[in-house]
Design brief:
This protein has helices spanning about 5-10, 15, 25-35, 40-45, 60-75, 90-95, 110, 120-130, 145-165, 175-190, 210-220, and strands at about 50-55, 80-85, 100-105, 135-140, 165-175, 225-230, 240-245. It is of the alpha/beta class and about 240 residues long. It has a 7-stranded mixed beta sheet, sandwiched between helices. β1, α5 and β2 (about 80-85) form a beta-alpha-beta unit. α3 runs parallel beside α5.
């Protein structure tokens, strides 16, 4: 594994150690409950096609799984999916495995930069070409820790602003502060590198303190928390479901 993969989490063999876990069942259960309770905007808007984006898609396996779950719980509403990852090689591999899904290579920290012109953002370009004002669903599974460690608190807030501005339903899988500390040690041990902004992070803390910082910020962006999984995956991570008010 090279140092770039270690630093940004774009592991090329990720699904060898997370091929299938309880995350799919947790996701399906909560989306089904929300759908059956008519709590999702897709039902209010009576959409005939759902637009979904998965940020941090890796090689696309879970992107395809989430798309299938959305189609199942909605009773067959078709879903057009796009995956976004920092790693071009992973996007190429994903495109070969799932040719019906568009995969885009982009660095979230870069495209969320307010100084960047929209025409330099490939996600904005995709949305314009597909006539998408906002995605119906954006997913971000176990990715924001790497954004936070590389971009600091301000970088994470910038990325959250970007994601919130582009979706109606935001699904997050967050990593705990303990995982942050493990990742810092792993980078130092495996690549003799550090995250320069780590020591200055103000959004931090065990026992859900870090997660509460992120949740409160998303709520401040005009979202409401419509579901949160009490059950955790094998990696001790829950799922949060936010929807625009």
């Amino acid at each position: 594994m090279d140092e770039t993969q270690l630093k940004h989490g774009n592991y090329h063999h990720y699904y060898r150690f997370r091929a299938e876990d309880s995350r799919s069942n947790i996701l399906r259960q909560h989306l089904q409950t929300l759908w059956d309770g008519s709590k999702l905007h897709m039902q209010r808007d009576r959409v005939s096609l759902m637009q979904m984006a998965d940020f941090g898609c890796n090689s696309g396996e879970f992107t395809a799984k989430v798309r299938d779950i959305l189609e199942q719980v909605s009773g067959g509403v078709p879903v057009r999916a796009v995956g976004v990852d920092i790693d071009q090689e992973l996007c190429d591999r994903a495109g070969a495995a799932f040719p019906d899904i568009k995969f885009i290579s982009a660095n979230l920290l870069n495209i969320a930069c307010p100084e960047m012109a929209n025409n330099d953002d490939p996600v904005e370009g995709y949305m314009a070409s597909a006539a998408i004002d906002k995605f119906d669903v954006i997913c971000c599974f176990s990715v924001l820790m790497y954004v936070h460690l590389n971009g600091g608190d301000e970088g994470l807030r910038r990325v959250l602003d970007y994601l919130c501005g582009k979706t109606k339903l935001l699904i997050l899988e967050l990593q705990s502060w303990r995982k942050y500390r493990d990742q810092v040690r792993r980078l130092k041990r495996g690549a003799e590198q550090s995250y320069p902004l780590y020591e200055g992070l103000e959004w931090k803390g065990n026992s859900g303190v870090l997660e509460n910082h992120i949740t409160d910020y998303v709520l401040s962006r005009g979202f409401e928390l419509v579901a949160a999984s009490d059950e955790k995956t094998e990696f001790h991570r829950g799922l949060l479901f936010f929807q625009t008010k």
